[in-house]
Amino acid sequence: MPRTRLVPHTQLRYVAIGILAVVTVVAIWILAPRLAAPPWTITLATGPDGAAYAELGKHYQQLLAKDGIKVRLLATGGDVENLAKLRDPHSDVSVAFVESGVVSEAESTDLASLGTLMYSPLWVFQRGGSQTLAMANIAGKRFSIGPEGSGTRFQVLQLLALLGLDPRSLQLEAYLPEEAEQALLSGRIDGLAINASWDAPVVRRLLRDPRVWLTSFPRADAYVALNPNLTKLVVPMGVGDLARNLPATDVTLIAPKTSLLIRKDLHPAVQYLLLEAASEIHSGPALFHQAGQFPAGEPMGVPLSPDARHFYKSGAPFLHRYLPFWLAVLVERLLVLLIPVLGLLFPALRVVPDLYFRAMERRVLGLYGQLKLLETECDRLAPGASGAALAARIDELEANANRLRVPAKVTQSLYHLKQHINFVRERVALREKSLALAD
What we know:
- By secondary structure, the chain is of the alpha/beta class.
- The protein is 51% helix and 14% strand.
- The strands form 3 sheets. The protein has a 5-stranded mixed beta sheet, sandwiched between helices. Strands 7-6-8-5-9 form a 5-stranded mixed beta sheet.
- The longest helix has 55 residues, at 325-379.
């Protein structure tokens, strides 16, 4: 006799396991960047050895080492080379210091910013001539504007273009900052330009030296209007050496801002460590900014990373505030996986008990179908026919019903089925007896 096709309980378990596996695979695929382990070694492109960026890189190196992250410092020619290393897919560089204006948004599709860190003023020191910057007093002079690949050279060449001055009208040298300082003091060059923070040792020494003076930018507002990446700053009179009143007057400078740029695929956990280090290093007051002004969530030509935007809005993630770095990363990876998995799995698993309930109902209904067929065959028994075979099939049906393990909601239907099986068994016995008497 044909039987109704049923869905066993074990198959429903396999369905649930299958749903869990699919949801997990999808979640891992979507969240793969955050599930990956963070790198324990990163490379930071700084600048020339001994220059401001190189010293700054050492502070980042020390702070990240506390959380087990090794920072390799790569000496370069400066900002332009830093950017080239960062954009080179074959380079190990994943973090770099880069001045605003060196990269445009159109060129930064594979990069992100962790914000601006500080002002990097353009300091121009001279030994002779006027103390203000003008074509008339710099044409024909010997100037050091930094090596190829440096942010100083980039900024100076842009400045000369704004002034309408052909770089070939100057004798441009490519000394490193300390080399340029020695060349200036010895008379081998007439001036030097350097992009550096107020704390740069070369800047502090030259500000105190009465043999040279700091050149002022009287049209700084015009430069800023023409190049929004620049900011107008003022060096107060006497700040270099108050006793000797050096510089002798307030000096106006123009300054780009230095940003901390990363590759977009840098692990979010490492981004947060870099942001926390930046806050510790740059948040204090300095000559040109107040406490808390830096680091700042300014894109400056390169979009902020999503993690940087979150950091500037809400601070470090909760786990990173209270747990060691390795433990915070581990817990975060688990949560990143479990929360969406559970979010998708919960409604899916709610369906499984319902499927099981309906499957058990269908099994009971299937046995009812078989019982109906047996009842129909009972009514069709011919005179003199034996009901033994029919009774045996009823016993088999009852045995199948007794083996069923059903949820409480289906128990009543199962008990009704057993009562009806007894009812049909009695009908078969009565039918067989009545047919025997008729004979």
